[in-house]
Amino acid sequence: MDGRELALRIQRFDPSIEERPHVERYAVPLKDGMTVLDALIYAKDRIDHGIALRFSCRMASCGSCGMKINGRPRLACETQVSDLRSSTITIQPMDNFPIVRDLVVDLESFFSKHAAISPRLVRKGDPDEQDSPSGEYLMTPQELESFVQFTYCIKCGLCSSSCPTSSTDALFPGPQALAQEYRYLQDARDEAGDERLDLVDTEHGVWRCHFAGTCSAVCPKGVDPALGIQLLKRHVMAARSPLRRRKSKRTGARLFPNPNKDLLTRP
Amino acid sequence: MRESTIMQLQYGTAILAIGLVTVHLLMQGVLVPYGEAISFQRVLSVYRNVVDAALLEVLLIVVLAHGFNGLRIILLEWRQSARWTRGVNWVVLLVTLAAISYGTRTVILAATGQVS
Amino acid sequence: MTVTENVLGHVVLVMVVLVVVYHGINGIRLILSEYGVIFAKPSRPDYPYKAKSLRTIQRHLIWVAIIAAILAALYTGGTLFG
Asked: Is-above-0.90 flag for pTM?
């Protein structure tokens, strides 16, 4: 260690015993290559064991360590201290979510909104195929390319945290759920097209997105939820258009039987 | 009415409003000197032309529909409950119709020379 | 007539022009975006993950809206106060 120090200003709040949050300062020795998560773990480990925070994989894969760092929603594990260009780092919990304690927020509404859009492949013609698979569904590379970027979502919540509509409209699904709805709508294997459109074509659905773009600006995985939402709007418009120039759902991917299908069934 | 239908109307009224406001400003604010354009008799003479009066009537409907629907959207994002949503939808619809009726009445009175 | 034919009324009208012109041009940008006219196709993201929805054309159109609004407000101010 070379004697340099980093000042962490961490918002602390225990709703069970406090009325409002307060900020506490911690001096952490600065090391080259240090991430904000490294600094938080040091503060928790060596200075104040009571700091509450979520983290897991440490490599921007699980999405657990989402928090507001110097005013911007980021993943603490992939935010290099040196990139912040400041000797003082202010760390707060993500906006738009109730605080459980300190930097930990309640993501129940976030996950329930995701669950509400039916985030799974829906098959109508062969509903038993997914439980007892006999083959694989084929997709062209172009069909995959049309939605694959939205599959990279790690459900970190940073997009919903930054969304201005989510901060006022509690019934708005949020950028994550809407982008995932487009992901499944565009998936050639999915056959729930019209039902998916009905889920988002509501008073508090996709039309309450005003394309602020903050969700895409903060997404750590390049999912670009704003793109998914605008494409979803286009899809809804085309499907609801009286001209109906486009079908609301392409024909589903065809099943390619697997000769070793016995190996695919569960024991 | 589906939200997507309402939004298509919102976009349609927006495009129409941009076109009609541009025409209106060009005719009344650019081609004619400002002081003359806002004189009472000049304004009345515009309404006595059938085409101009029809354009202004369409502009009235389009701007009020677009504006009040925008207000409806803001109010729906501000608070969420079934009662609030129902109330906002009905009040905005009624206020829009009332404003359009009052404006149309003004246009008709001016166009038929009942205002001098 | 006296409601707007005073300094405060003219200032309000200039602000109305500023806001309406910005809202109109930004609205055109949003309509073009939501109908997919100025949108790129989705593709596999590569680090450093530059979001396609926030491309330069979006920023440029926002600047066009701001500059047009300012020019329109200046013209209106010149007409009303001139």
From this structure: no
